[in-house]
């Protein structure tokens, strides 16, 4: 591939501040840039924002409709996993199957060597191992490396994260100084396809299914009351149970087959887990590792990292033991491993 093509970068533009500033910075660094908006659900306002910013920057803008693919691979999978009693993370799946897989496919198709996004993360080439590393962003509050752990070596080689060494206030200031139309846009806190945060309502509308009431039980199997449908509860939940109990209780487990939601007391050890296994493993600094290694691990996006020991027990599976028990470890969520600011990898909690 010649140097001219090596200077070409395709930037995923969602219409938000982060991807807009990422495009600006890459253009100012001298790259031959173009924006791409991957429509995954009906949000034409976002697409218009992205196109307007691309026009403002004087770069090409492409738009592709991936709604059917997004519905099949992300929304349908999210609903199926939730119904099974899991707590899925659709952002991780979307990054793996769409935001990067499809982005790089389109970059190849359109002759752009690099792909870029507005994620807060960094990459680095390790001359000793000859591998590309994924690292945390400088702004720890905005660091998004947790949802990027499934990136491949080929993707890390050709991805650019222009915001990796900036803070969110710095990014917003750049947008304001350049007069971006979206400079004051608020950040979305919910899953992109569930604007109101009502997961259960979305799943019922999307699947056309009604999820019946069932029993709340304690860890001994005693009936405590009736729940309003198994999809309305998540592991570790305390509020909104609709029960009058002598002391606070938390969701410990969901059993889709029996349509039961098991509760436990706050101090009961069942709510805390010291070990877990995870599959769909992706490792970044190496293909695999032998023996036990000391790591920092997190089982939720916003959780502080916790000291742990990791052991790869098969090609696709990892076993993790924490130094101290972790609260509300949920099947279906991702566990991500770190060594300092380097992402070792991660998998899906079993």
Description:
- With 350 residues, the protein is an alpha/beta fold.
- It has three domains: 3-177, HUPs (Rossmann fold), CATH 3.40.50; 211-267, SH3 type barrels, CATH 2.30.30.280; 270-349, Elongation Factor Tu (Ef-tu), domain 3 (Beta Barrel), CATH 2.40.30.
- 26% of the residues lie in helices and 31% in strands.
- It is built from eight helices and 17 strands.
- The strands form four sheets. A six-stranded antiparallel beta barrel has the order 12-15-14-13-16-17. The protein has a five-stranded parallel β-sheet with strand order 3-2-1-4-7, with helices on both faces. Strands 9-8-11-10 form a four-stranded mixed β-sheet, with no helix packed on it.
- The longest helix has 20 residues, at 90-109.
- The radius of gyration is 22 Å and the shape is globular.
- The protein starts with a helix and ends with a strand.
Euclidean distance between termini CA atoms: 42 Å
The first-level CATH class of the largest domain is given as: Alpha Beta
Run of helices and strands: HEHEHEHHEEEHEHHEEEEEEEEEE
Overall pLDDT: 91
Q: In the CATH scheme, what's the topology name of the largest domain? A: Rossmann fold
CATH architecture of the largest domain: 3-Layer(aba) Sandwich
Per DSSP, the total helix count is 8
Which secondary structure elements does this structure contain, and how are they paired or packed?
Layout lengths: L2 H4 L1 E5 L4 H12 L3 E8 L4 H14 L2 E6 L1 H17 L6 H20 L4 E3 L5 E5 L4 E5 L17 H6 E2 L7 H10 L21 H9 L6 E5 L4 E5 L21 E7 L4 E6 L6 E12 L8 E7 L7 E7 L5 E10 L6 E6 L2 E8 L1
Parallel strand pairs: 1-2, 1-4, 2-3, 4-7, 8-11
Antiparallel strand pairs: 5-6, 8-9, 10-11, 12-15, 12-17, 13-14, 13-16, 14-15, 16-17
Helix pairs in contact: 2-3, 2-7, 4-5
């Amino acid at each position: 591939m010649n140097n001219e093509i090596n200077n070409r970068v395709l930037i995923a533009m969602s219409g938000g501040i982060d991807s807009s500033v990422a495009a600006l910075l890459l253009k100012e660094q001298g790259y031959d840039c173009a924006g791409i908006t991957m429509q995954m659900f009906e949000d034409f306002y976002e697409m218009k924002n992205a196109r307007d910013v691309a026009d403002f920057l004087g770069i090409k803008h492409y738009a592709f409709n991936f709604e059917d693919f997004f519905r099949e691979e992300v929304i349908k999978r999210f609903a199926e996993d939730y119904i099974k009693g899991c707590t899925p993370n659709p952002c991780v799946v979307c990054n793996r199957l769409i935001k990067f897989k499809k982005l790089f496919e389109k970059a190849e198709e359109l002759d752009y060597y690099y792909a870029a996004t507005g994620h807060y993360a960094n990459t680095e080439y390790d001359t000793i191992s000859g591998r590309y590393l994924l690292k945390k962003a400088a702004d720890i509050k905005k660091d998004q490396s947790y949802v990027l752990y499934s990136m491949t070596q080929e993707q890390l080689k050709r991805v650019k994260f222009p915001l990796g060494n900036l803070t969110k206030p710095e990014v917003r200031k750049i947008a304001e100084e350049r007069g971006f139309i979206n400079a004051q846009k608020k950040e979305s806190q919910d899953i992109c396809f569930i604007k109101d945060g009502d997961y259960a309502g979305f799943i019922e509308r999307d699947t056309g299914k009604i999820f019946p009431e069932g029993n709340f039980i304690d860890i001994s199997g005693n009936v405590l009351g009736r729940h309003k449908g198994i999809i309305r509860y998540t592991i570790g939940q305390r509020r909104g149970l609709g029960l009058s109990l002598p002391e606070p209780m938390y969701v410990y487990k969901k059993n889709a087959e029996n349509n039961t939601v098991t509760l436990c007391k706050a101090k009961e050890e069942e709510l805390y887990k010291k070990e877990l296994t995870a599959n769909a493993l992706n490792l970044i600094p190496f293909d695999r590792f032998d023996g036990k290694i000391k790591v920092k691990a997190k089982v939720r996006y916003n959780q502080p990292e916790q000291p742990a020991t990791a052991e790869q027990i098969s090609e696709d599976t990892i076993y993790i033991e924490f130094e101290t028990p972790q609260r509300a470890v949920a099947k279906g969520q991702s566990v991500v491993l770190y060594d300092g600011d380097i992402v070792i990898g991660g998998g899906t909690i079993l």
